Predict the structure.
Amino acid sequence: MWPERPVYERLKDMSDITPVKPFDYVIFGASGDLTMRKLLPAFYHRFRTGEVPGTARIIGVARSALERSAFQQRTREALESFVGDAYHDPETVTQFLELVHYVSLDAADETADWSGLSALLEDGRVRVFYFATAPKLYRKVCATLDARGLITPESRVVLEKPIGIDLRTAQDINEGVGRFFSEENIFRIDHYLGKETVQGVMALRFANPVLENAWSAEHISSVQITAAEVVGVEKRAAYYDTTGALRDMVQNHLLQVLSLVAMERPASLDADAVRDAKVAVLHALRPLTGAAVGENTVRAQYQAGEVKGEAVPGYLDELGHASTTETYAAVQAEIDTPRWKGVPFYLRTGKRLAEKVSEIVITFRPPEAGRSSGADLFPSPPRANLLVIRVQPDEGVTWRFNAKDPADDGFDLRCATMDVHFERQFRQRYPDAYERLLLDAVRGNPILFIRRDEVEAAWRWIEPILEGWGRQDVPMCGYPAGGHGPKEADDLLARHGDAWYSGAA
């Protein structure tokens, strides 16, 4: 048995923790769900472990007319809801709340009184402005920060996705923010890159010669990248209907994961070396235009069904009107490089599916008959080896391989699996993605953030698909809530003799 979390966390060598320097962290849109569910709990965890100093300031900014004490109470309630019982210590929470401040301010109003915010900011500190607001406000807020003299040489800005809704709007945002902040001080956040298992893809590949030597079309037949959700659009229906699954998940999260899986070995682990390798993959994606959009993509909306024993309405029922916005997207991509020639990369994401899971599935080619391999040795043909990288939940790796069937007196084969659960293996809590990302912005470390050319390269590839869907070149399919997605997505893979991974050995 391995120790309970509180025990093994206390056993960690605290000398490994280096506190960041005192900072002022301003969160625009602080009354929203992201701040309460993710950002404030992330800061709390890093305060609890000693990385956030007691002299730091976390300043929430929103239009709501709240006193500081009321915002602190909301923060307390958020920590009670979203911090596990093993880590929720009332005394530590009280100490953390001393860092939390609030300013009532309409950041979109250029005539508003910014003196309350200005009074809380201390010269000489790292100053981070986090935009948890609508992207259309990014440039306007930056311009007002500049006009009020609040941008210092130690200032950074963190931009939440989506960076635009297409290439043109992404370029407008990049150029608008870039007027006031240099590229090295712009941190475009994609929380998938903050997930330990996603970062671990590089270690898995480049630190293990067995895998690195087999990481190519010669040995790999396909790659699947999945981000499935059980929840529907719920209170975000109005926002989601202007976005859809392709913009919300594929353009950023899934393409970022694809670029890490497919990139060439970077020259170093310096931020720009890694991001150069990633953007090279995005540039090498074969464009999907014209008829290729219909042949290689699927879009769908969830219909009424049952999720975990509970009846739920369909997307259009929740929305209250007709819509051509997809809640499910599947795309077959190919990368035109020698390493990946002919290997399909299947991307899929959807809401109201049977389970919440994000994973990468690498399918290796089985031994071929007639070659000097084991294919002809055994009465039952070997099955393809699978490497499954679980991003969430239960972060870890599963390896499926062929073994002799112990129930057979001959040499029939049977699939066996080896599972590594990282939290158990390393005996420590796996942090939420935002924990590292929030403090990397303070440190000025951009390796897990997205560079401007990455954002624009991803939009260039996605935009023809959006245009094809806008012309209704691809029919809108349906799938029952609580299922595994539309049949058309299964057919997309079946044409190549593939099938979506279901978790079965």
Notes: The first strand starts at residue 23 and ends at 28. The domain at 5-160 is CATH 3.40.50.720 (Rossmann fold). Residues 244-262 form the longest helix (19 residues). The CA atoms of residues 103 and 291 lie 52 Å apart.
